[in-house]
Sequence to fold (290 residues):
Amino acid sequence: MENPVVILSLPLIFIVVMSLIKMAKKKRSDGKPWFRIEKVEENE
Amino acid sequence: MNKHLSMRSGNPALQSSTFRNHLSAVTEGTMTLSGTVNKTGIGLILIIFSAGYTWGNPAMHGLVIPAVIGGFILAMVTIFKPQYGHITVPMYAVVEGIFLGVISMIFEQMYPGIVIQAIFLTFGTLGALLLAYKSGLIEATENFKLGVVAATGGIAILYVINMIMGFFGSGIGVIHSNGMMGILFSGFVVVIAALNLVLDFDFIEEGVEMGAPKYMEWYGAFGLLVTLIWLYLEILRLLAKLQSRR
Fold:
C-alpha cells in the first residue's frame, strides 16, 4: 500500500467519470435531444 | 411535493420538520442556492483561516477544550434558533477551525504530509458527490435516506458507547485499531460521512424549492460544514491508520 491517497482517490475518479457519462447521455428535461437536423423547406 | 413532507437527513442538524417549522417566518426574501453556496464558502474560509492561525500559534493550543465546548453550544443554538444563524454559524466555523488546527497539527507531527492529503480527499469527495448528485447518478430516494440515517445513527451510538467506555479506561478496539477490521470500519465511516453530503445537498435544494426563509441559508451552510468537518476527521483517521502500517 504505497500511497493511500491514490487508492482512496480511485472511487472518486470512478464517480466523476460515471457522472460525466450520465450527464452526456442525459436528454433535456422536455425529452428533446440537445440538437436535431431538420429538413429546411424552400423560402423558409 | 409529497417527498418534501418526508425529508430525512443523517445529519442531526437537518431534521424533516426543520423547513416546515420556519415557513411561516418568511418576511425578508427566501432561501436561494447561490446564497447557501456563498455562506458555505464564508464558513469554509473562516475555518481555514482559524485553523491556519491556530496551527502557527502554539499559544492557541490551550483553547482546544473551550473550542470543543463552544462549538457544541453554538451548534445547539443554531439547531434550535436558526434565526441567529448569521451570528452563530460564523462563530461555529471559527471555533471549529481552532479545534481542527490543533488536531491537524498533532496528526501532521505524527505522519508528515497527512493533512494536505486529507484536505485534498475531503474536497475531492465534496466535488465528486456534488457532480454525482447534479447528474442524477446518486439520488436521495427515501430508501437511500433511510439507509444513510440508520448507518449514521449506528455509528453515533458506537462512538458514544466508546466514549463512555473510555471513562473506565476501555474502548471499542475496532474504532482505533489499525488492523484490517479497523481500516474497514474507518472506510465504512468515511463512506457514510460522504453519503451524508448527498442528504445535505438534497436538504438545501428542497429548502430552496419550498421557499424557506432567507436565514435558512445559514442553516443549510451549517449542515454542510458539520458534515465536511466530520468527513475530514474520518479521512484523517483512516489515513493515519493506513500510514501507521508502513
